[in-house]
Design a protein that fits this description.
Blueprint (H helix, E strand, L loop, with lengths): L12 H10 L4 H34 L6 E4 L4 E7 L3 E7 L2 E6 L3 E5 L3 H11 L1
Antiparallel strand pairs: 1-2, 1-5, 2-3, 3-4
């Protein structure tokens, strides 16, 4: 019958011994949830933080003449910049103004020139 119902303990010294055995799981009970939190930190949070730091560093390093791609996919050359906005020449003297945070990637020098030649030849 003790399979479904726990045995009753006698009052006295055995209660103290039984109480120690019946206490909560202690630190072992926290190991699994802490492991899950650590796993999510390594898998999701840390890479996003690293990517954000790299993005801030790249935006801070923008200079006149740099070739960039915006979040919308516009490829162009930086004409001028200030604290919040960047003016980008996207071809045929068409200049657009975007926020610094809208810059997605810095492209290698010459990318804009090659793309402009392709468009002019077709």
């Amino acid at each position: 019958m003790s399979f479904f119902i726990s045995d009753a303990l006698a009052v006295g010294e055995t209660v103290a011994a039984g109480a120690a055995a019946v206490d909560g799981p202690g630190w072992q009970g926290l190991a699994f949830p802490l492991g899950i939190l650590f796993f999510f930190y390594i898998l999701f949070i840390r890479p996003q933080q690293k990517k954000g730091k790299e993005q801030k560093k790249m935006i801070g390093a923008l200079s006149k003449g740099a070739e960039v791609v915006t979040n919308g996919g516009m490829l162009g050359r930086v004409v001028s910049l200030d604290d919040n906005f960047v003016q980008i020449d996207i071809g045929n003297n068409v200049v657009i103004q975007v926020q610094r945070q809208a810059i997605q990637n810095l492209m290698p020098k010459g990318t804009f020139k090659v793309q402009s030649k392709r468009l002019n030849n077709s």
